[in-house]
Specification:
Layout (H helix, E strand, L loop, with lengths): L4 E3 L9 E8 L2 E10 L4 H11 L7 E12 L1 H16 L3 E5 L3 H9 L3 H4 L1 E2 L2 H6 L3
Parallel strand pairs: 3-4, 4-5, 5-6
Antiparallel strand pairs: 1-2, 2-3
């Protein structure tokens, strides 16, 4: 199994994969599926770390559209990925439409940092 495809937890909607990465228009998209929580964060971190590595593309988008549960450990992953991108003058985009996840970001005062948008297309086009 490559680092671009991680599986193993229940509740995943894509053949058991928690995270998969793929390229779109020079950007890496990391699509998360199923539950993002303490039990899955380690496996998902592998894919996010690969995408946000110093030698990676200048724009990475994390797509939460297929997640079924997202807790504070997921927020930590996103903040970590944002910091890694900022250190190399890259940018992190975020796709999120789940109201409970958006509310959690708002309560944690992270919406300004993470700037979630409702569609992948918007995240790919967002200016840096």
């Amino acid at each position: 199994m490559s680092a671009g495809d991680v599986g193993g937890a229940s509740g995943c909607g894509d053949g058991g994969r928690l995270a998969r990465s793929y390229a779109v228009r020079g950007c890496t998209v990391v699509e998360l599926s199923g539950d993002v929580d303490l039990a899955t964060v380690g496996e998902i971190r592998v894919v996010l770390d690969e995408a946000t590595a110093p030698s990676g593309p200048p724009h990475v988008v994390v797509d939460l559209s297929r997640t079924t549960f997202f807790d504070c450990t997921g927020l930590d992953l996103l903040v970590r990925a944002e910091a890694r991108m900022a250190r190399r003058a890259g940018r992190l985009g975020l796709v999120c439409v789940q109201q409970i996840t958006l509310r959690m970001m708002e309560i944690a005062n992270l919406t300004g940092l993470l700037r979630p948008v409702p569609t992948l297309e918007q995240a790919l086009e967002r200016p840096g």
